[in-house]
């Protein structure tokens, strides 16, 4: 094997024969977008769309300046800087075909914890027209059961009291908007790219709640000037592995320390509501619609919830990845019936989309054997995902007298998983959740009180008082604690 060549701007011409590379003059690109949360998903989705746009038209005002707020983002910042912010997108098809592409739309990166004013100044710069976010569900800092902003969070309290030295995304955005207002500049758009229903409305709500606490007058300006478009985002993007890095080195002699792998499918449906202009992402496949609600509900309740169903049941069973789950008939059938019996009845029709086709396509996407999407990623932060992805469906079915068994077994499995932290073979599970300790403590009381887990109010709200639900749940939880072989309980729901 020849020595791999480092990916950077100077070396780009050396790769041109081997993979698609940016065709535009990156030195002319200005950062019109500041993006907080540069992870795999941002790089396979928004940065990819923007890179395509720059290749296909003159969109040099819409480059991206990445921002990390925490010290944990230092490593990625260093890698990106070393590579002139270039990275490789490895698109893996189910039939084994691979398309590689160097993405060039990110042109800078700043670390908020090192130099907060550099980040604030960049956001407040006249070139910046959009600040976009992938900060995960938990990043919005709301109580999942009440939907209200949590002002008691210590970092939020710090930011309310120290407007010049923010730590949280809310503090940074507010400080930058304040500077813009003082300078007579138009507000930027705050564009959420997270998997939250009405992500724009949610971003607006938490931003206004924060600003109200810090500066009521500014909050009013934000309320009228800042647009927060809702959007549905979709592309399955597993965590980058050492194998991805080795693949580029051995196949393309390219050394990229932080590539990103994803599936071929991509979707972005956005409400066309921007404060200060936007890129014409529609010319590279994004869809602008007046109301994104039916698209996002469909996606969150089928795809994300479907992932959680496989993630939690599969973790207890001992499966490593999503594709391994759907390769087993029991899991594939369970998933399809959950979608057909429990989710489909609570969905509204979506213009231009045949639900059966959408579900078929999802199962095919989940089955892509080259996207080895680890269940640990899927189960990450379940406490902030399940209330919207899965528990909302249970609630609606309870209200309509619909089926709840498929989803309830997942909640019971989640309790066992949180309590024991091992799969049915006794092997340790890798659980990452901001509420891990609280969930564990509640779940561990199940033997004494079968409903103990449901008393975690920020997750379950008042569900513990619903007799229909607790009846089904109690039967399931007792069965799982007697015999953790989850496949048998899935069979029992199926037949
Ligand atoms: C996954 C998502 O972690 C999860 O909850 O369901 O990351 C999923 O892969 C993306 O939303 C796909 O668009």
Automatic annotation (TrEMBL):
Protein keywords: NAD, Oxidoreductase
Mannitol dehydrogenase C-terminal domain location is 291-480
Q: Does the keyword Oxidoreductase apply?
A: yes
Q: Which residues form a coiled coil?
A: none
A molecular function (GO) term: oxidoreductase activity
Which segments constitute the Mannitol dehydrogenase N-terminal domain? 32-282
Q: What is its EC number?
A: 1.1.1.-
Lineage top rank: taxon: Bacteria
Please tell me which top-level EC class this enzyme sits in: oxidoreductase
Pfam families (UniProt xref): Mannitol_dh, Mannitol_dh_C
State what protein this is by name.
Mannitol dehydrogenase family protein
Q: What is the lineage of its organism?
A: Bacteria, Pseudomonadati, Verrucomicrobiota, Opitutia, Puniceicoccales
């Amino acid at each position: 094997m020849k020595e791999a060549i480092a990916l950077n701007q100077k070396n780009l011409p050396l790769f041109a024969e081997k993979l698609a590379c940016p065709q535009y003059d990156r030195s002319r690109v200005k950062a019109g977008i500041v993006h907080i949360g540069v992870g795999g998903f941002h790089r396979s989705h928004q940065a990819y769309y923007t890179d395509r746009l720059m290749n296909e038209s003159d969109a040099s005002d819409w480059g991206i300046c990445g921002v990390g707020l925490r010290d944990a983002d230092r490593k990625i910042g260093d890698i990106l800087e070393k590579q002139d912010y270039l990275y490789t997108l490895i698109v893996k098809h189910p039939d084994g075909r691979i398309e590689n592409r160097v993405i060039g739309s990110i042109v800078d990166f700043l670390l908020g914890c090192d130099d907060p004013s550099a980040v604030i100044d960049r956001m407040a710069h006249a070139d910046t027209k959009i600040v976009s976010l992938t900060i995960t569900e938990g990043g919005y800092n709301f109580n999942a059961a009440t939907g209200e902003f949590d002002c008691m969070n210590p970092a939020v309290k710090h930011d309310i009291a120290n407007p010049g030295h923010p730590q949280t995304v809310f503090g940074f955005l507010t400080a930058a908007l304040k500077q813009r207002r003082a300078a007579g500049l138009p507000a930027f758009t705050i564009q959420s790219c997270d998997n939250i229903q009405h992500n724009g409305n949610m971003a607006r709500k938490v931003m206004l709640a924060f600003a109200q606490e810090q500066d009521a007058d500014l909050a009013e300006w934000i309320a009228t000037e800042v647009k927060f478009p809702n959007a549905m985002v979709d592309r399955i993007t597993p965590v980058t592995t050492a194998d991805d890095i080795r693949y580029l080195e051995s196949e393309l002699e390219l050394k990229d320390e932080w590539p990103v792998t994803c599936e071929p499918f991509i979707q972005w449906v956005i409400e066309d509501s921007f404060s200060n202009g936007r890129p014409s992402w529609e010319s590279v496949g994004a869809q602008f619609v007046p109301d994104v609600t039916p698209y996002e509900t469909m996606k969150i309740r089928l795809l994300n919830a479907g992932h959680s169903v496989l993630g939690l049941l599969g973790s207890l069973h001992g499966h490593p990845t999503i594709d391994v789950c759907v390769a087993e008939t029991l899991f594939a059938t369970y998933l399809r019936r959950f979608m057909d019996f429990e989710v489909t009845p609570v969905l509204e029709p979506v213009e231009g989309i045949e639900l059966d086709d959408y579900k078929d396509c999802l199962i095919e996407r989940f089955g892509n054997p080259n996207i080895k999407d680890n269940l640990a990623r899927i189960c990450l932060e379940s406490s902030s995902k399940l209330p919207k992805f899965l528990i909302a469906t249970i609630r609606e079915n309870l209200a309509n007298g619909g089926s709840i068994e498929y989803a309830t077994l997942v909640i019971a499995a989640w309790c066992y998983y949180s309590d024991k932290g091992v799969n049915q073979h006794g092997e340790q599970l890798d659980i990452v959740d901001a509420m891990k300790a609280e969930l564990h403590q509640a779940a561990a009381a199940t033997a004494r009180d079968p409903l103990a887990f449901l008393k975690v109010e920020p997750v379950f709200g008042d569900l513990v008082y619903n007799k229909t639900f607790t009846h089904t749940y109690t039967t399931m939880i007792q069965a799982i604690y007697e015999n953790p072989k989850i496949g048998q309980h899935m069979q029992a729901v199926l037949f």
